[in-house]
Amino acid sequence: MSSLINTYISTSPDETEEIARELAKKLTKGDFVAMYGDLGAGKTAFTRGLGSVLCPGEPVSSPTYAIVNEYYGDGVRLCHFDMYRITDDEDLYSIGFYDYEDCIIVCEWSENIEFALPEEYYKVTIRRKDENTREITIEEIR
């Protein structure tokens, strides 16, 4: 079951980060944020906003080549995955995905691992409306 939290319009990376900061205030250890959106939609900017609340001072960047970046805050660990090149469960095992516990997981390109998403998570979809405008939909999947 899905319940819509809200839909937002962002006209800049700063606004995208601000929207994410509001969601970050609700997150606790064990939460999963599944990100959906095309290349350049703003998934990493959204994650920067989450990180600014959860792990202040940590420089959040895209984990495209590393596959996962970990950030540490006061009593919280944020694990930021990029699943762009992940195609199956074997790939997830090889990167140790199932070993990540006691953290908040943010996962870009979640459409590639829908088979592995938890029963409960936040679904964040970012759609590009034009060069600067994004529609950001946040759903709570339960």
Notes on the structure:
By secondary structure, the chain is an alpha/beta fold. It has one domain: P-loop containing nucleotide triphosphate hydrolases (Rossmann fold, 3-Layer(aba) Sandwich), CATH 3.40.50.300. 21% of the residues lie in helices and 32% in strands. Helix 3 links the parallel strand 4 and strand 5 (104-108). Helix 1 packs across helix 2 (43-54). The radius of gyration is 14 Å and the shape is globular.
Keywords:
alpha/beta; Rossmann fold; seven-stranded mixed beta sheet
Briefly, what is this?
This protein has 142 residues and is of the alpha/beta class. It contains three helices and seven strands; from the N terminus they run βαβαββαβββ.
